[in-house]
Amino acid sequence: MSPELQEVLFVRHGRILGRMRESGADIECGDGWFDVLDVLCARLQFHTDTDGAPQVVAVQVKEKAGALRFYAEGADEMHGGMIDVAQAMSEHFCQSCGGRLPCLACSRTLAALRTADTR
Ligand SMILES: [Zn+2]
């Protein structure tokens, strides 16, 4: 993820992402999943703040096999359900631009880049 957008998430969701920020760990996925992560972290924190649930602390956030992977400590059953839905939703959206898959815009860009590489 671009440093600028990652910083927005780190600042907005400091209690969840603070440990990653302090350890220098990056969010290892494209900018297209910014909103999925932003909403996920907001809902995780809301459950903690309003229901007295444990504090979720993310330890690793990355893309694996085309899907978001959100590894965290302190998640209760409801937090786990939220994480599961976010990970499943990510498989429907382009991690580069956030568009619905299959993403024609990014596949055209990738094809153009590949053509440029072979020249
Ligand atoms: Zn795209």
What does this structure look like?
It is built from 5 helices and 2 strands. The chain is an alpha+beta fold and 119 residues long. It has one domain (3-118). The longest helix has 18 residues, at 34-51. The relative contact order is 0.15. The chain binds zinc ion (ZN). The site of zinc ion has 7 residues, from helix 5.
Overall 3D geometry? Answer: elongated
Beta-strand content estimate: 5-15%
Number of strands: 2
Q: What is the typical, i.e. mean, pLDDT?
A: 94
Overall number of structural domains = 1
List the ions, cofactors and other small molecules found in this model. Answer: zinc ion
Provide the structure class: alpha+beta
Q: Largest beta sheet, briefly?
A: 2 strands, antiparallel
Ordered list of secondary-structure elements with their pairings:
Blueprint (H helix, E strand, L loop, with lengths): L2 H10 L1 H10 L10 H18 L5 E8 L2 E7 L3 H14 L13 H15 L1
Antiparallel strand pairs: 1-2
The structure holds zinc ion (ZN).
The site of zinc ion has 7 residues, from helix 5.
Task: Give a nutshell description of this structure.
By secondary structure, the protein is α+β, with helices and mostly antiparallel strands. It contains five helices and two strands, in the order αααββαα. Helix 1 crosses helix 2, helix 1 packs parallel to helix 3 and helix 3 packs antiparallel against helix 4.
Q: Can you give keywords for this protein?
A:
alpha+beta, two-stranded antiparallel sheet, binds zinc ion, 5 helices, 119 residues
